[in-house]
User: Which sequence fits this backbone?
């Protein structure tokens, strides 16, 4: 579950980095195409890519992953609150979708953070870890 969530986060991160206007349009509407909004979207994408990579690299190495999962839960919680605060200024479908995705992802990451290291896990073979130069 942790690897799947991390890979989903990395996919969002790459999309936000490479195509910020298109990737964030559903969430924030036409404003996503503005140059200043693209700056923030790319920064958000870098955050998600880094957290996702942190999870998979830790799990590839058999290292503790709790901190990365806590960072994941916190960032998703912030996305949820920020979307709530955006209210009706955001497109309805995007707002509701992000609220559902952020709440579910924050809850899952929080649960995994409390259990994955304690219950133990077999290290995984994560090609992403190899691509970043980690042995």
Assistant:
């Amino acid at each position: 579950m942790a690897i799947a969530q991390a890979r989903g986060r990395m996919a969002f991160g790459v999309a936000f980095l490479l195509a910020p206007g298109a990737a964030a349009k559903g969430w924030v509407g036409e404003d996503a195409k503005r140059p200043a909004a693209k700056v923030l979207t790319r920064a958000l994408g870098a955050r998600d890519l880094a957290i996702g990579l942190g999870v998979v690299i830790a799990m590839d190495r058999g290292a503790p992953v709790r901190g990365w999962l806590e960072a994941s839960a916190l960032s998703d919680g912030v996305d949820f609150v920020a979307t709530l605060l955006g209210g009706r200024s955001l497109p309805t479908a995007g707002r509701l979708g992000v609220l559902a995705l952020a709440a579910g992802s924050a809850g899952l990451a929080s649960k995994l953070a409390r259990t994955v290291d304690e219950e133990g896990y077999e290290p995984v073979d994560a090609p992403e870890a190899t691509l970043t130069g980690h042995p």
The two ends are 23 Å apart (CA to CA). The CA atoms of residues 45 and 82 lie 16 Å apart. DSSP finds six helices and no strands in the chain.
